[in-house]
Amino acid sequence: MITVLALRNPEPEYAGTRHNIGADILRAFSEANNFPAFKHDKFLKAEKSIGTIGDHDVQLLLSDTYMNESGQVVLAARLFPENTIVIHDELNVPVGDLKISYDAGAGGHNGVASVTSAFGTAAYTRLRIGIEPNHPVTGDARATFVLKPFTPEERQKIESSTKTFIDALTTIIKEGRETAMLKYHTK
Predict the structure, then answer these.
(1) Which domains does the chain show, CATH number per domain?
(2) For a tag on the chain, would you pick the N or C end, based on fewer CB atoms within 10 A?
């Protein structure tokens, strides 16, 4: 079974923020592929939905931990890095763009660092959804920036790109990470 884990902050006040874009995309993916409704699984520390994409059984998980504790889901669900795709926000990718990576550093993303620590390796696939602003964000400002909502213009870019994000995730599942990288990496 392939698992797709979306990193997020689960509290309602974080809905629609930049840090939760991975969860927004996973919900859109679930709806587009007619997965059953997400159900809370206290043991897994996540909301879960299971369905099929092509010939693959797929488990979708929306983390119920805070971003910096995302590795707890990896441990509770007993995930394996080779069968897991992690979706998360990426400050170093423009809004509306995506990057697919494998065996890469966390780049200052504490949720990714937590997942990597839980796996004991960075050798897992990541779908990185861009949230980069039009101006530089450095130091302590990064922590507050990711908790802000998108501007209306940025939200439009995200909405225009959602089908591409869904298609990229589908390609990773059906055809593999390398094929998806060739097809969807933005310049």
Answers:
(1) 2-184 (3.40.50.1470)
(2) C
- For residues 160-170, one letter each, b for 16 or more C-beta atoms within 10 angstroms of the residue's C-beta and e for the rest, the string is ebbeebbebbb
CA distance 83 to 126: 11
Structure-token pair, residue 103: 């065996």
Residues with catalytic roles: 19
Does residue 52 sit in helix, strand or coil?
strand
Q: Which amino acid is at 12?
A: P
Structure token digits, residue 63 = 């983390």
pLDDT tens digits for range 95-148: 999 999 999 999 989 999 999 999 999 999 999 999 987 767 777 778 888 999
Helix (H) or strand (E) holding 6: strand 2-6
Please state the φ and ψ torsions of residue 136, each to the nearest 5 degrees: -65, 140
